[in-house]
Design goal:
Low-confidence stretches: none
Strand content: 35-45%
Structural class: alpha+beta
Helix content: 10-25%
Largest sheet: 4 strands, antiparallel
Shape: elongated
Number of helices: 3
Distance between the termini: 21 Å
Radius of gyration: 18 Å
CATH topology: Bacterial Protein-export protein SecB
C-alpha cells in the first residue's frame, strides 16, 4: 500500500465550474400530485494534471419521476469542476505504471462535487415537476467505486 501525503483542505481551491448541459423534459399534462417517487443515476469521474496541480471532476445525473398513470418528467445535467491542489504531487503516486490517487483526495473532491451539484440542482428544479427531488446524502466512497 502506497503512503500518500496528508490531505490539507486549505490547499484545495475550486477554480471554476460549468454546467455543460442541462435539460428538464416534462409532458404538458404531467401532474405532480401523481408523482410517488424519483429514481436517479449519477456518474462521477476524476482526472488530473500533475504538472499544473489541477484536478477536474465530471458529474452527470439523470432524474426521473415515478408516477401512476402518466408519462414521466426527466432531468439530465452534466457538471464539470476544476480544482487547484497545491500539494497534488504528494497525493498521487505512481505504482506499476499507473497513477494512484489518495483516497482522501478522491473522497474530498467527490464530496465537494456532489454537494455543490445538489445545491445547484435544487435551484434548477424549483417550479418544475422535479421540484420535490433533493439529491440524497451518500457515502463519497460509493461515487469513487462507480
Amino acid at each position: 500500500m502506497k503512503d500518500f501525503g496528508k490531505l490539507i483542505p486549505e490547499k484545495i481551491k475550486m477554480l471554476h465550474f460549468s454546467i455543460l448541459s442541462g435539460a428538464i423534459d416534462c409532458p404538458e399534462e404531467h401532474d405532480n400530485n401523481k408523482v410517488t417517487n424519483f429514481k436517479f443515476d449519477v456518474d462521477f469521474e476524476m482526472g488530473h494534471n500533475l504538472q499544473e496541480k489541477l484536478v477536474k471532476t465530471n458529474f452527470r445525473i439523470s432524474v426521473e419521476t415515478e408516477s401512476t398513470d402518466q408519462k414521466e418528467a426527466v432531468g439530465k445535467f452534466h457538471f464539470i469542476y476544476w480544482f487547484s491542489v497545491d500539494n497534488l504531487n504528494e497525493l498521487i503516486a505512481k505504482e506499476d505504471g499507473q497513477e494512484l490517487v489518495s483516497s482522501g483526495l478522491g473522497n474530498a473532491l467527490g464530496s465537494i462535487t456532489y454537494s455543490t451539484s445538489r445545491g445547484i440542482l435544487m435551484t434548477r428544479f424549483q417550479g418544475t415537476a422535479l421540484s420535490n427531488f433533493i439529491l440524497p446524502v451518500v457515502d463519497p466512497n460509493d461515487l469513487l467505486a462507480k
